[in-house]
Amino acid sequence: MNKEDNQGQLWEVFLQTKPGMAFKHVGSVHAFDKELAVQNARDLYTRRGEGTGLWVVSSEEIVAVTINEAEYFFEPIDKKIYRHPTFYNLPEGVKNM
Amino acid sequence: MLTKELSEDQLLAEFDLKIASDIKIEPRDWMPEEYRNQLIRQISQHAHSEIIGMQPEGNWLNRAPSLRSKKILMAKIQDEAGHGLYLYSAAETLGISREQMIAALHAGKAKYASVFNYPSLNWADMGAIGWLVDGAAITNQVSLQRTSYGPYARAMVRICKEESFHQRQGYEIMWRMMQGTEDQKRMAQDALNRWWYPALMMFGPHDADSAHSSKSMKWKIKRESNDHLRAKFVNKSIPQAELLGLKVPDVKLIDEASGIYEHTAINWEEFWTVVNGNGPCNKQRIEHHIKAHEDGEWVRKTAIAADLKHHTN
Ligand SMILES: [Fe+2]
Ligand SMILES: [Fe+2]
């Protein structure tokens, strides 16, 4: 740790806002260890009882693809419109499909 | 890290309360061993079904009648591979490894849907599978979106969204054939006749004979019973068949006023024969899976070697 770094490392915070929901990224916190990281995340992001579950992940562990890389990284979905249900010609009046 | 010290009885009471109030169970939550094992059994079986289910359709990939239909079939099979992977991952949150699940499949200890042990004989089967087999799977999976285990429920939500094109592409194939020659119409009807009962069997034994059902229902792993889901599927499918000019075999109208149909007796002897490994394609399906797994061994070995090297550098 150098003189400027007196905040601990950065952690990404994921909140589950209702039981059963997927955990969603809400932001980040600083902390020196796992235990403090969940406590800081709780204090910072759930002051109104927003959470029923919480994850923190060391920011260094996040592997990211950013918008600049998106164009060549993600599959060009406009060429694969048959992956969408609207692509298909079905007879008039078909139900439950 | 933050758990209170509770006795086994208290933990069980908390668990039961969560189940009763429809609060999802998450991987780090305490759960009874039997609940965990039941989930591992069901989710891994579900995952294996997605993966083995690629084989009957893969059989027609390089004989698809047009580039359009080939691209669609390829996209559909890719989705099924994806579904298998979502589900293996969900099962892994319960403390079983991918390798263990695959070993159980290869040893014949883990099952997969018996429907995939039937052969796909011609192109009409691609229609019947998408329409009926995916249709039955969807009926089941829509219900499982409300299952009590969080990661399984969330995988189901994702899968259901993706399934919507699967059934439509199959139904479209059937419709096209029904607009074709007399031979094509006959093929479509024949495919329906052959896949109808295997699709009905996908819902499993009658409620009264289902070994795992009562516990599963109690713990809300399953939300609707086998027979209930099967009846739903039957009554969705019959009007769809009629619209195409197809006839579903052996169904009878039991309630004229509300138009409710019932299927006639399922051949359970056949069902158990297939479940116990003696269906028309069981051997072929597992052998193919083992071969694919063994053929991929060098990839896993290389990846592990590279990973070790990376970590020691
Ligand atoms: Fe699927
Ligand atoms: Fe599907």
Descriptive notes:
Chain A has 97 residues and is α+β, with helices and mostly antiparallel strands. Chain A is built from two helices and three strands; from the N terminus they run ββαβα. Chain A has a three-stranded antiparallel beta sheet with strand order 2-1-3, with helices on one face. Helices cover 67% and strands 3% of the residues of chain B. Chain B is built from 13 helices and two strands; from the N terminus they run ααααααααααββααα. The longest helix of chain B has 29 residues, at 150-178. Chain B is globular, with a radius of gyration of 21 Å. The two termini of chain B are 33 Å apart. The mean pLDDT of chain B is 94. Chain A binds chain B through residues 16, 19-20, 22, 34-35, 38, 53, 80, 82-85, 87-91, 93-97, and chain B through 1-2, 23-24, 26, 68, 71-72, 75, 79, 150, 153-154, 164-165, 167-169, 171-172, 175, 236, 239-240, 243-244. The site of one fe (ii) ion has 5 residues of chain B, from helix 6 and helix 7.
What is the distance, rounded to the nearest whole angstrom, between the alpha carbons of the first and last residues of chain B? 33 Å
Considering residues with a beta carbon less than 8 A from a beta carbon on another chain, report the largest interface and each chain's count: A-B, 23 and 26 residues
Helix/strand structural class of chain B: mainly alpha
Note the overall shape of chain B: globular
Morphology call of chain A: elongated
Q: Termini distance of chain A? A: 60 Å
Radius of gyration of chain B: 21 Å
